Amino acid sequence: MNACISTASLVVLLIMISANRLCCEAQQCRPSGRIIGKKPPAGECNQENDSECCVEGKTYTTYKCSPAVSSNTKAELTLNSFEKGGDGGGPSACDNKYHSDDTPVVALSTGWFNNMSRCLHNVTITANGKSVVAMVVDECDSTMGCDQDHDFQPPCPNNIVDASKAVWKALGVPHSQWGGLQITWADA
Ligand SMILES: *[C@@H]1O[C@H](CO)[C@@H](O)[C@H](O)[C@H]1NC(C)=O
Ligand SMILES: *[C@@H]1O[C@H](CO)[C@@H](O)[C@H](O)[C@H]1NC(C)=O
Ligand SMILES: *[C@@H]1O[C@H](CO)[C@@H](O)[C@H](O)[C@H]1NC(C)=O
């Protein structure tokens, strides 16, 4: 009788463990594919402000998802121009407009951009003990890259908040350090 109960509870325990694993694996964000870099045609790929260009033959990982969003989601802050002729390429995806780099605007990795659902909504970005509210205006495409539409730049990693210089200024980051910073963000 006792042996029976403990066998039954062992089975229940095993089921719980495997169900738990299924749940949490499903929540993790895994790559969706790969792109092999093509050499940008002459004159393509604006390297203004350290934008990276695709390297011929290099493998780039693509993602349709991003890490789960919380009240302090970890991300990498990068620098982007949202002005006409800047390194952001065409006008912003949310409103089909260019934006002054003196306004706090950002592009989010595909998963966080979430099919336009954060468009023109604000996020609070925190680093260095300072916070700034910025408006989401564009997508940093994690699913594609190394083509004309993406100015021959690699696909975006899935944890990027790509920000105008106004955001960097507001966070009090010295100009010489603009470009890459660990931050946290939340929906404002
Ligand atoms: C980007 O580079 C251009 C040209 O080098 C410069 O004028 C501009 O101030 C830079 N933008 C930022 C945000 O640093
Ligand atoms: C994204 O939104 C559009 C328009 O609301 C909808 O038609 C489409 O199915 C959505 N795509 C995904 C992947 O949710
Ligand atoms: C986002 O912030 C801007 C500037 O503070 C404000 O004008 C705008 O109404 C805010 N948008 C939303 C959706 O709250």
TrEMBL record:
Species of origin: Vigna angularis var. angularis
Superkingdom of origin organism: Eukaryota
Keyword terms: Secreted, Signal
Record protein name field: RlpA-like protein double-psi beta-barrel domain-containing protein
GO cellular component terms attached to this protein's record: extracellular region
Protein family (similarity comment): Belongs to the kiwellin family.
Recorded name of the encoding gene: Vigan.09G152000
Extent of the signal sequence: 1-26
Keyword Membrane: no
InterPro entries cross-referenced by the UniProt entry: Kiwellin-like, RlpA-like_sf
Compartments (UniProt record): Secreted
